[in-house]
Design goal:
Elements lengths: L4 E5 L3 H13 L3 E5 L11 E4 L2 E4 L5 E2 L5 H7 L6 E2 L6 E5 L2 E5 L11 H6 L5 H8 L14 H9 L1 H12 L12 H4 L1 H4 L22 E4 L4 H10 L3 E4 L14 E4 L3 H8 L4 H7 L4 E12 L11 E3 L2 H6 L4 E6 H4 L8 E8 L4 H5 L1 H16 L6 E13 L5 H12 L5 E3 L9 H15 L4
Parallel strand pairs: 1-2, 1-11, 2-10, 7-13, 11-17
Antiparallel strand pairs: 3-4, 5-9, 6-9, 7-8, 12-15, 12-16, 13-14, 14-15
Helix pairs in contact: 1-9, 1-17, 5-6, 10-11, 11-16
């Protein structure tokens, strides 16, 4: 019997992990198509002038199913590194406050940490310490803001919860779905802490985040090195579904891209995909003399509450101090910082050059730098960050039903069931097993 011919559209970590799994479990003829000139998607690392600079994510969560197993299979265990520090800061009223682990434990905040927190009012502290675990909302769908306001009150929610659980997704806390992003928290009995993303089995106190000695592109290189039966075609921008020549097709691209590809072949599926919103992600990487960072030694970075970003039109939602967070990311005499432009800042959408200028000026003011930073690079991902808004899970149910009319078409990636790297790896491997169920 002739082996099935499979097309994978999208050479990011989801598509690569699907190809990796297909090679393991089948004898399929696999063709992977990537629109750009290299595979990897957002997971790219560049080396320049002693800097190790990430294009996209700089780490992965360790508390997600299947990631450790994949790292073992890729022989990457010796390349994994832990952060030098896990402590971060919150910007409250234009002042950075170091945040203790007990303050950011969203299941059961530590009473001593809450009492000592300098940016929470006495009323807010009393409300937090008297909190009980709320019931799940009647309709089964609730926003991040609604759930944690009911549990801990509005002040703690807006100052602490929202920057961590909403700001990092580039979304609005009154629109992002708790059920889609943090389903384990909805089932909480108060004994564990929230972990970002779907499928979490451990709390933040157990789970952590790691990277690789030579950057996140290490994961991409490991996947491509393991592929021996997959034909990889870069600079192959697929516009229409190549259905005639393939038995199975996986679209491992964002929903807004998959929508265009499926518009003629599967219009019902495309119409549902069009309802999943995406925002643009822009990262500004800059460097400063290392001594300038003296007051921020031991901090991995800072976050700004989304409501402050909106109310005061701040140009950024936070920053990572890369050289403080990871070893060997910058020359000894320099510090490397990544700024994240806020998708909700109006100027970000209209004038990128002005946004970059304002982001640098704002950061200098906030961090009280006595010198202007040197701009290293700007990485921009147009409409690439999915928003799991209220109703996202209902959309996925509609999508699954519509796909039943097209049993040879499969979807996976950040737009669907988890946005983190481990989520994408899991989805890629799971969908590969669905494509060849007989095996």
């Amino acid at each position: 019997m002739k082996p099935e011919k499979v097309a994978i559209i999208g050479g990011g970590v989801t598509g690569l992990s699907a190809a990796f799994e297909l090679e393991k479990i089948s004898d399929c003829e696999i063709h992977l198509f990537e629109a750009t000139d290299q595979v990897g998607g957002k997971l790219q690392t560049r080396f320049r002038d002693g800097f190790t600079i990430e294009w996209g994510p700089d780490c992965y969560f360790t508390g997600k199913p299947g990631m450790e197993e994949t790292i073992r299979e890729l022989d990457l265990e010796s390349e994994v590194i832990e952060p030098k520090t896990k402590q971060f800061a919150l910007s409250i009223n234009m002042k950075l406050h170091r945040v203790s682990a007990g303050t950011s434990n969203f299941r059961s905040p530590n009473p001593e940490a809450i009492e000592a927190c300098p940016f929470l009012s006495q009323k807010a502290k009393k409300r937090i310490l008297e909190a009980t675990c709320p019931n799940i909302s009647d309709n089964g769908h609730e926003s991040i803001r609604s759930f944690f306001t009911r549990r801990f009150g509005s002040e703690y929610c807006r100052k602490v919860v929202e920057p961590l659980l909403a700001g990092t997704h580039g979304g609005l806390p009154d629109q992002l779905s708790m059920n889609a992003l943090y389903p384990d928290v909805m089932k909480s009995d108060g004994s564990r802490e929230a972990t970002p993303g779907e499928g979490s089995k451990k709390g933040v106190q157990q789970a952590s985040f790691n990277s690789f000695r030579n950057g996140m592109a290490t994961l991409i290189t490991a996947f491509t090195d393991k592929l021996c039966k997959t034909t990889v075609q870069v600079e192959s921008d697929i516009i229409n579904l190549p259905g005639a020549e393939f038995d199975k097709i996986l679209l491992a691209v964002p929903a807004n891209r998959a929508c265009i590809i499926l518009n003629q072949t599967a219009p019902r599926v495309a119409a549902i995909l069009a309802k999943i919103p995406h925002v643009t992600s822009t990262v500004i990487t800059m460097s400063v003399p290392h001594p300038v960072m003296y007051d921020y030694f031991g901090l991995s970075g800072f976050l700004i509450p989304p409501q402050d970003v909106i109310d005061f039109n701040f140009p950024i939602s936070g920053a990572t101090f890369s050289s403080e967070k990871w070893d060997d990311r910058a020359p000894e005499e320099l510090a490397l910082i990544r700024l994240f432009l806020s998708p909700v800042c109006p100027q970000e959408r209209h004038n990128l050059d002005l946004s970059i200028k304002k982001a640098l000026e704002f950061t200098c003011k906030l961090l009280k730098f006595g010198c202007l930073p040197r701009l290293e690079c700007v990485d921009r991902w147009e409409d690439a960050l999915p928003q799991y808004n209220l109703g996202h899970l209902r959309l996925l149910d509609e999508l699954d039903e519509a796909l039943m009319e097209h049993p040879n078409i499969f979807l996976a990636g950040t737009s669907y069931r988890g946005v983190g790297i481990p989520d994408c790896v899991r989805q890629g491997r799971e969908v590969a097993r669905k494509m060849v169920p007989s095996l």
